[in-house]
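Researcher: Please generate the 3D structure of the following complex. Treat every line as part of one assembly.
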Amino acid sequence: MRNVNIKIDGIQVSVPGGSTILEAAKAVNIFIPTLCYLRDVNEIGCCRMCLVETKGGKALQAACVTPVSEGMEIFTHSPKVVEARKVNLELILSNHVTRCQTCSRSWTKCELQTLANKLGVQQVRFEGEAPYHPQDVTVSIVRDNNKCILCRRCVSVCKNRQTVGVIDAIGRGFNTVIGSPFGRSLADTPCVNCGQCVNVCPVGALHEKTETDVVWQAINDPEMHVVVQTAPAVRAALGESFGMPIGTAVTGKMVTALRMIGFDKVFDTDTAADLTIMEEANELIDRVRSGGKMPMITSCSPGWIKFCEHYFPEFLDNLSTCKSPHMMFGSIIKTYYAKKAGIDPKKIFTVSVMPCTAKKFEAKRPEMEVDGLRDVDAVITTRELADMIYDIGIDFPNLPDDVFDDPFGNASGAGVIFGATGGVMEAALRTATDILSGTSTDNIEYEEIRGFEGIKLAECTVGEVTLRAAVAHGLGNARKLLNKIKAGEIEVDFIEIMACPNGCINGGGQPIQSSDIRNWSNVSQRRAEALYREDRGMYVRKSHNNPAVKRLYKDFLGMAGGTLSHKLLHTHYHEREKYPENV
Amino acid sequence: MIKTVEQLNALREKMQQEMALRRGCADGCTEMGGRMQILVCGVAGCQSSGSMGVYNELKRCIIENKLEDEIRLISTGCMGLCALGPLMVVYPGRVMYTKVQPEDVAEIFQSHVLEGKPVERLFAEDNDGSKIADALGHHSFYTKQLKIALKNCGTIDPYSIDEYIGVDGYQALAKVLKEMDPEDVIDTMKDSNLRGRGGAGFPTGMKWAFAASQPKKQKYVCCNADEGDPGAFMDRSVLEGDPHSVIEAMAIAGYAIGSNQGYVYVRAEYPVAVKTLTAAIEKAREYGLLGENILGTGFSFDLEVRLGAGAFVCGEETALMTSIEGHRGEPKPRPPFPAVKGLFDEPTILNNVETYATIPRIILNGADWFNSIGTEKSKGTKVFAVGGKIARTGLVEVPMGTTLREIVYDMCGGIPGGKDFKAAQTGGPSGGCIPAEALDTPIDYDNLIALGSMMGSGGLIVMDEDTCMVDLARFFLDFTVDESCGKCSPCRIGTKRMYEILTRITEGKGEMYDIEKLEILARNIKNSALCGLGQTAPNPILSALRYFKDEYIAHVVDKKCPAGVCKSIMKYKIDPDLCRRCSICKKHCPVEAITGDKKNGFVINQDVCIKCGQCQAKCPFNAILHRDRKGV
Amino acid sequence: MANVCNGCADALAMEKALDEVIARYKGTKGPLIPVLHEAQAIYGYLPFEVQLKIAEGLDLPLADVYGVVSFYTGFTTKPKGKYRVSVCMGTACYVKGAEAILDKFTTSLGINVGDCTEDGKFSLDACRCVGACGLAPVVMINDDVYGNMTPDKVEDVLKKYEDVQEGI
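Model: Done. Output below.
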């Protein structure tokens, strides 16, 4: 678009046509406060914090949604603007439970609190009725409408990005609340627990259902042998909770911190990711050879699994029967590891640190157990791990590095990149090409399935065989892809789906970056780079070359897809009613 | 099916003959229309006061006397003088009968219809007490009116497309399609200086020009018939009385901007309007005046009726479109304006019913004619629904620039009970009040804004000395709080806070700082709300603070309600001079707040009194007062 | 054909009518609100099952449908009874014991305020002052006004509306 010339606070500036006032002001280093606005997610101009005055305009305009036009003159802090922002913020605060000291977001950049500081709001003049709302607590997510400021980011991300749409504005006017139909708990809706709503909430109205208390309990129980595993995406983001730059991989410090917290063993879920690749690759080849249901779709993302069960039951047979990596690992720990270490599996407590809220639900699925023992006893998010680190007063950024425990040790680079969209597919292709060709391929970086394009397609030919792969991240894209497959517009053999937009690095359990940062930089990109960097620095970059995995098959499982594998590492799915009656 | 303009004109001629009586044509009337035509208002106020019974009774008389061929009985839309309903008019002579009850019909029929002697006792009474037969021509309620939008309301059968055609209906559409380019139509609209009748008064021609200039294939024409202002019912009257004028105008708009599809968004609370409009659309389709290839010109246009579902905010243009799309009726930020990106993201124009009803006449008579009416910046006429403390409530259409005094005193007969005019409220919950000082200000868009009110859709509520301005502001805020969509924070929370402060004040719990808070909130909500509803929500408060601040102070400082309305701070007192000690008050007090006996007199215990007013209502001697008498 | 009781036959007929409405609007632009209007005309209100059917039929999230229904005052998710009982909770009535009367109605009818009896006969609401303070406490049933109410009179008042035998 052609550039337009405008004046902001007296500064002449030329910006691309179609830019918003907010973007134009940013270009001349002027900060306009925002609250409801989150780029690409929620652009509805409802909080009225980013108001600016335009010459000749009657009412003030919301900078986040108002496009610039030629000759426009904008005043970003005229007395009219300053007063309006303050009054509006006071009004929002007057209907917000300000128990900041005990709020989950108080120290992690509550955007409302930050704004009150920035605008110098030190009292609320317009107190009045603030209705009480009971919390909604599910196994994954807690919604607290007492803190909700009705910015609607959660509604937008759930409805538009994830096409799940289990929450919406309910009621009208002052009585408007965000909620599920007929006052249901999220648990009684087709919510997939992806936690994207949590991830976009500017305040403490949404957070995960925390499980740190049971983890502490286990750690403090001298009888229990507490084993922790950490997902690949965790290391790419945990540092952010301690003020480290976005995109810092903190694997070694994380391992040290976990030991200091008191976990008896610290394992890397990446190893299980390698195991997953072995099982999945085997399953894929088996399906191809035996004419099984195609295309095969990955099953690592529990948000996606529940989505499939609710919305695309016709694809249930396409899902890989593999449990997700941390669940596989849980059952391996309670069998193979327990035997090897000589510990009664009943005395082992397995904890998964995940970038994900859906994993909490997954771990509680009834079928996720072997011989009456739960595969995973507790799931905590990256944020909860940060909480635990704060709990014991560790100076995280200055910790020395440590390495994961034996017998699983370090995983392959393939396992590391599981955390980003396309990572599972890339890991699978690295292994599949080697198996099919019978040699070791050097060309292992699949650029076409990296990056944040909604749906990515790739073909990989090895000799006679061509594998057609598709990758979708974010459930809206998954829906699109599946509909295309149903309509016969796309034909593929293998599909990777991750529930969260951009993959696990942007999972619902990751540290929350405020919109001030997210609006202007690609946080996911920087986190993904950390993972790809780590992969590149690794000696073993293919799952089937992971020595621990090889040993596991040799000593315990036998062959991939064998009987024991099926007992321990595979599962099944079932169609779920969206809104069961009689709840 | 009318396929050509010639066929349209032929039908018009035939109908002109049939309707000649109504044009006041005494001689030359053909036999086609019979020797007498009786029009009975069949809607709104008249309907609720029993006009159906009158209609049925007339019908019975006609059949009984076998006069079906000679006498035409027609149920029409609103005739305007609702206060005197049920209304009926007998042609020839245009004799109007008021407050007609079914039992009056026999007399009218015998005397007037059969014997030619009109029944004088049922004539409308004018300000000077005289009885007027041809009220439509000579009663002061009507003489200052100029009907453009309401031209056909009350004079034709709204269910008859033929009658509409008989009064030049669809001629404007024919003219536009046959003789004008879309640009000509837009130029005419621009030249006419017609401004939207639904609210802010945006120039209609400009709106159309924006939409016309959009290079999009699909565009939409919308009609706002979601009249939600309490006290306004002109749009309803047009739809119930002259639906085809809106249909015709929308087709003209479609031709002008390049759209083939229109939507009329009507309140579901207007079932009669919906029925009339739906029937009219079907008829227009049947006649080929809607649909494909209208009048053989290749232009196609069709209409769909969409019902509101009880949300005042849907009168706001972006909210209305969101609602048609099937969502919560929440407004969207502008720009983009609907003319660029509106309904279903396509260029869309939206005008209200009254605006549309004006358009066919502008096309037929020309922009110059329209410009000759009204004030410098507000051309044409405006319809007002006059209500409240006024002798003659009803619907009036007056040239812009008419003064409030003319409407209130000359046309509507002033305030009943000899009370003083205190203020008039225009613009409903978005407007403000006009004090007595401004009675002689010519009413137009700009003057009303300067007075701190607005035209709005044209509700005009008259208030006398018994109205408390704080309580009135609270009433409107209660409405706005109820009707706020809840999307933007200043409106969602701010209106609630203003309502809470006003409630405190009316309960005698206010402080001076509360008035200041009201001012701060009002100013900022006006500046920062997302849509027009929110931006204008503080107007009732701002305007009351401007003209009646002393009343606020009386509530806050003296803890008194000068108008005696606010119950919590009101005190009922027994005037010992007037009291005859009958003890009726004591008997009727539901909470035993009145003590005393016939010997010593009675007093009201203020701690117990709940201000239900029963004692005052039951006192035969008017000895119970609830406010300080003037001069005492 | 198997015997179907009247209630079930009605339910089937209503379901069929709703299916027709959805089919008629499916694929049109902005179908939700017209469908809700027609569904409410069929059922008298918009309960969970009806909204779910509409959501599935029009391929919309149920939360969307419910969000719309809850926005417009013209839509209701609760049935109203043939006889609408309104207990005045204005100040005069309140101090004269309206609450006890309301309580009595809830126990006699076995429903909460805002709800409707299963047979659709009575619904119960608390309302603002009806302007009959002299008769306090006041109860309105449709347009009939009952003044000077006491909890003891509640049963007698309700009996007046039980004259009509409905169904077998």
